[in-house]
Amino acid sequence: MTDQNLSEPASQPQDATVVVSRTVAFPVRQVWRVLMTKDGAEAMLGPGAQFGEKGHSWVAENGRTGVMRSLHPLEEIRFSYRRDEQAAPTTVELALQAEEDATVLTVTHSKLEPDMDLDDLRTRWQAALDRVADHLAQL
Predict the structure, then answer these.
(1) Mind listing the pLDDT tens digit of every residue in the chain (139 residues)?
(2) Hey, which of 21, 32, 49, 64 would disulfide with 58, CB 3.0 to 4.6 Å?
(3) Which is nearest to 40 in space by CA: 138, 139, 135, 123?
C-alpha cells in the first residue's frame, strides 16, 4: 500500500450576492426617465453621483465610488461599487422588467466579500428602490 496525500484542497470562499426587488405601478419608460434624472441617480448611488456612459466614473458625497459598466436603456444599468477607496470593487446590476403597466426593479449586488454585512446591503438597496418609487409617485 502506498501513501497518498489525502488532504483536501483548501476551499476558496464563495463571493456573496444580495438581491432585492420592488414592483412599481409605472411603465418601464417612465421608470427609466426618472432613473436618468439627477434625483433618480442619487436615489440609487447617493447624493452627488450621476449615471453616465460606459466607463464613466461616479463619486457620491458619502465616499462611495464606481465606474459605469453598461447602460442598456429600459433594461439594465450595471456599475462597479466601492463603499470607500480601500474597499475592493463589487458589481451592482439594476434590472428593469416591464409587466403590463408596472415595472419590476431588481438590484443584484455581487462579488461581495464574505465578511461584508449582507443585511446592511439589503437594507441599503431596498431603501434605494423606495427612494426611486417615491420620486415616481411625485410625478
Answers:
(1) 444 444 444 444 567 999 999 999 999 999 999 999 999 999 999 999 999 999 999 999 999 999 999 999 999 999 999 988 888 999 999 999 999 899 999 999 999 988 889 999 999 999 999 999 999 999 8
(2) 49
(3) 135
C-alpha to C-alpha distance for 92 and 18, rounded to whole angstroms: 9
Written as nine digits, the cell of 32 is: 427609466
Between CA 41 and CA 136 the distance in angstroms is 13
Do the beta carbons of residue 74 and residue 96 sit within 8 Å? yes
- Of the candidates 123, 138, 130, 136, the one whose C-alpha atom is nearest the C-alpha of residue 32 is 136
φ and ψ at residue 48, rounded to 5 degrees? 90, -10
Q: Is 72 exposed, middle or buried (0-12, 13-18, 19+ CB in 10 A)?
A: exposed
**Residue-by-residue DSSP string for 21-71:** EEEESS-HHHHHHHHTSHHHHHHHH-TT----STT-EEE-TTS-EEEEEEE
